[in-house]
Amino acid sequence: MKKIHEPVLKKEVIQYLKPEANKNFVDCTAGGGGHSLALLDKVKPDGKVIAIEFDPDLAQRLREKEEENLIVVNDSYINLKNIVKENGFDKVDGVLLDIGMSSWHLENSERGFSFQKEEKLDMRYNPEVQNLTAKDIVNKYPKNDLIGILEDYGEERFANRISKEIIEERKRKEINTTKDLIETIKKAVPSFYIRKRIHFATRTFQALRIEVNRELSNLKKVLPQAIERTKPEGRVAVISFHSLEDRIVKNFFKNNNKVKVLTKKPISASDKEVKKNPRSRSAKLRVVEIK
Q1: What gap in Å lies between CA 201 and CA 162, rounded to an integer?
Q2: pTM (2 decimals)?
């Protein structure tokens, strides 16, 4: 039986964003539509939800739901300011950002996001407009650039060894698939690292995905727009999945005099949710109210 995607921290998102009848919201990272539809349910009959989804396949799936007052936009959230205007709003009552990939990308996209399947090394959220792939990075980037990406975006302790092995491997043959990359990483890291609970390729895959999709720089671009496009007393909520993202969000909120921080510490998933959806274990929710 196929699992139904359940958005992380759904109850907490609704609690903090406070969607009410006839209010308008933006879900910047709609994915499978779980958060968007939960918000839409609360803002009916006349409220609207703009669901932004960069991946064209996921955007099309959302359109097929044919939900009244759900405005699906296939674009990057870095264009949030213009998207809000183009859809007839000056400001909205709340904005949600659920940073990170949808479970659909891991399970169904066939673009090499998962190290548990053999797929082409792609990792683009939108292949129609993005050129750089994970395959390009591992086969073309100089060693020092690879080390920098693995250290900065993956916080990988064996970045040097992995990068050196990638350089050696690509001299022999092109690294084309997830399996090729995993075997290369396996040769580079010590045996104890391979036996750890967290898969030894996790941090490398994370780093490549962030580099391909410019995730951290895009997050920095969208946060000011989210504040600017939200009404006074409206709220902005951000869910992040690793420390790099959370640090950016935390510091941006802390140093912004236009907002009141509602979550002194980030909100985490309950034990019950983690048991039901293991992906939620690393999720952190931070929320601010516009002054």
Answers
A1: 10
A2: 0.93
